[in-house]
Amino acid sequence: AKSAGRNQYCFYQSSTGQQTADELKMEQALRHALQQRQLGVHYQPKVRLNHNTIIGFEALVRWQHPTFGNVPPDSFIPLAEKLGLISALSEQVLDTVCEDINSHGLLGLPVSVNVSVSQLTDPGFCRRLCRQLKQYNVSTHRIELELTESCLIPEQAEATMRLLTELRKQGFRLSIDDFGTGYSSLSYLRRLPIDTLKIDRSFISELPDNEEDSQIALAILAMARALGLEVIAEGIETAVQQDFLLNAGCQTGQGYLFSRPVPVTELDVTEDILV
Ligand code: C2E
Ligand code: CA
Ligand code: CA
Ligand code: CA
């Protein structure tokens, strides 16, 4: 039952398999929003759990449509992927991140951006990322790439390995997002040049009462330690969850408990202490 909740909501679900009028409208609206560069970016702090100090930010795309209102990324990201628009979308997100780094500083800390699977199979991905950052004079060391386990297609293990190695060599930090929800084998994971595992929110939300989830969180932490990887827990909403994770040896996290994703101008970050 729970696994269903871990699946992403998909936009195209009409029973006939045909696009409904609403879906077509949404498609046109998304194309328009991209052309007009109307997508925004919000930032959610990542914190050190023992002191609540900020250690970085995750950039999350936002789409405020005049009539549809706020459209959630979980619905328009799959749509952008389906329409072949995800590279254009990601490029706009990174443009905004670079502009915000240059005009607001973002404390000089790393900023994470989310990467979709189709970007990883694009042979020019690393080269174009580097060129884009260079245009803004932003160092690759400032940018962390969050890849989901679904990005790590086993059939493309060799190509993925080459790409991740190249990205790492160029200075990007790499993390595996939504960790625990995919099927990547440990032996594969062990060989990948990644820095961080991000424990999926679905394992955090019922801590500490849910015994199964507690065990999974502990197992991921133990595994990360064994592999020498950093761990961050996402979706922390309560102090009880924070305490559980701290006691389990998890040093970093993010979630509504600390801050929701907010516009760059609403980040209270002259100090790295969250207020
Ligand atoms: P994600 O990468 O796993 O991002 C975390 C999501 O959890 C975000 O939802 C964030 O707002 C939400 N979240 C953070 N803390 C909490 C919490 O304490 N409780 C709860 N209930 N939720 C929390 P958001 O912004 O709606 O994004 C959803 C997904 O859309 C992201 O999941 C990511 O897969 C995708 N996405 C967002 N922005 C981008 C982007 O720029 N590019 C790509 N390719 N995907 C993106
Ligand atoms: Ca993410
Ligand atoms: Ca995640
Ligand atoms: Ca997710």
Automatic annotation (TrEMBL):
Sorted keywords for this record are:
CBS domain
Q: Which residue range or ranges hold the EAL domain?
A: 23-275
Protein name according to UniProt: Histidine kinase
User: To which species is this protein native?
Assistant: Lacimicrobium alkaliphilum
Which residues of the full-length protein are shown here?
565 to 839 of 839
